[in-house]
């Protein structure tokens, strides 16, 4: 095949990134629920801290995958290229959210805070969905390749 083989290291990092993305998504959803329950700003801060921890782990896994880009297959390179701006957006917005909370601790029931929180939830959901899709794609490709080998299907002439 003309296409390079998938890097198992990159796939492993994508799976780990998926885990952290899902955890960040769950924390961001919990944070959004907090805006409707009247919890203290300290509860908001604790939940934001959880989002931050998972986002930092997600970005760490992504950066490790990005370092392995030269050995990645074409679809893995494409995934890295498409995930990167989304993660940059998450990091920038999460930092703005943290700064807003630090400066407005007694205003967690106000619209600006709710808007920050909603945007964090949307960013983390988009990231989790995108990474989930790439992980599923990688698993489907691996299964198809394995099945092709086990069935000893010859390559079609002219197919690359």
Features:
160 residues; mainly alpha; elongated
Distinct helical segment count = 4
Radius of gyration, rounded?
Answer: 20 Å
- State the major sheet: none
Distance between the termini: 6 Å
Overall helicity: over 70%
User: In what range is the share of β-strand residues?
Assistant: under 5%
- Taken in chain order, the helices and strands follow as HHHH
Estimate the global geometry from the Cα principal axes: elongated
Alpha-beta content class: mainly alpha
Can you count the beta strands?
Answer: 0
Low-confidence stretches: none
What is the typical, i.e. mean, pLDDT? Answer: 92
Task: Give your account of this protein's structure.
78% of the residues lie in helices and 0% in strands. Helix 1 packs antiparallel against helix 2 and helix 2 runs antiparallel to helix 3. The model has no long low-confidence stretch (mean pLDDT 92). With 160 residues, the chain is mainly alpha-helical. It is elongated and about 70 Å long.
Question: Helices and strands in order, then pairings?
Answer:
Blueprint (H helix, E strand, L loop, with lengths): L7 H27 L6 H27 L6 H30 L7 H41 L9
Helix pairs in contact: 1-2, 1-4, 2-3, 3-4
Concise account of the structure shown:
The chain has 160 residues and is mainly alpha-helical. 78% of the residues lie in helices and 0% in strands. The model has no long low-confidence stretch (mean pLDDT 92).
